[in-house]
Amino acid sequence: MATGTEPPAVGTGASVDTGAPGSKGTSGGTGVQGPSRAAIAPRHLRTDRWWLAPAVTAAGLFAFIVYSTWRAFANSDYYAAPYVSPFYSPCLAENCAPMRNGPNWEIFGSWWGLSPALLILIFPLGFRLTCYYYRKAYYRGFWASPPACAVAEPHAKYTGETRFPLILQNIHRYFFYAAVPVAGILTYDAVLTFRDEEYAWGHMGLGSLIFLANTVLIWAYTLSCHSCRHIIGGRLRHFSKHPVRYRLWGWAGKLNNRHMQLAWASLISVALCDFYVYLLATGAFDDPRLF
To answer: What does the angle CA 213 – CA 187 – CA 206 come to, to the nearest 5 degrees?
Structure first.
């Protein structure tokens, strides 16, 4: 099948340009319209609804951005004993709501007048923002770079992640180091939910189940990270000499196969936890006690 990309015969003076209206491969074009690319008139040959996935992705991420921004700057309704919103844990400022035996670490004094959530959210936010999956998601959803597989991006040039600010994506591993203790603190918060509103142990409410599910998903997403898998076994030359690390590397690989699903599930669960605490703190309803 002729595509218009066959080189002209020597000495004929023929041009690569087909002259067809809207054809690719014309001189003066860039990217997929460059002179060395196939002379195909359509921008792509996909006939399915390829735009649906990036559109849904962008809508989901935008909804979370709006919600989390509102809750992070609200500086209220984030604690209803024994539950604390994961957006505000650990609480690092003096202006935090008092939480008995909770993650209250008054590192920042009275001079800090903004929401204490802004002091801790930078770490889980940075971890997700530099995550390999999320980079693919928002590059496609918001920047159309590229919009989808086999669909040309509209940008005239591509520099990848070699320039500022995208070169900062390379610090993803260091955000992973910060995400691990944050996940540990959220685990501690989940343990504290097995108290009642008077801080007596041996009780479980609906919120306890929500917090437990969120903790499991947060850990699963964190440990499924590509950096985690590389740290465990990426530089080993002989797995036979490191059987424990090899087994851990295999488990991390299995989780990594579900990294996208875990990214979304944990994103939804952390927002659900915060919203549940918000409903309790505002008195919308009482936490149903299972025992």
So the answer is: 40
Residue 233 and residue 248 in contact, taking contact as beta carbons nearer than 8 Å: yes
Tokens at residue 266, please?
């944990």
Cβ within 8 Å of residue 40, ≥6 positions away: 3, 4, 23, 24
Question: pLDDT below 70 — which residues of the chain?
Answer: 1-34, 37
Which residues, 6 or more positions from 274, have their beta carbon under 8 angstroms from its beta carbon? 68, 71, 78, 85, 86, 87
Cα separation, 69 vs 63, in Å, equals 10
What is the C-alpha to C-alpha distance for residues 16 and 184, in angstroms, rounded to an integer?
61
Q: Which helix (H) or strand (E) holds 105?
A: strand 104-108
Query: Which DSSP helix (H) or strand (E) runs through 227?
Result: helix 226-233
Pairing between β-strand 79-80 and β-strand 91-93 as defined by DSSP bridges: unpaired
* Strand-strand pairing, 79-80 and 83-84: antiparallel
R_g of the chain computed on alpha carbons: 25
> What pTM was estimated for this model as a whole?
0.83
Amino acid 39: pLDDT: 72
Contact by Cβ (8 Å): 4, 18: yes
**Helix or strand or coil: residue 276?**
helix
Given a contact cutoff of 8 angstroms between Cβ atoms, the answer to whether 219 and 187 are in contact is yes
Per-residue model confidence as pLDDT tens digits over 175-206: 999 999 999 999 999 999 999 888 899 999 99
pLDDT at 157: 77
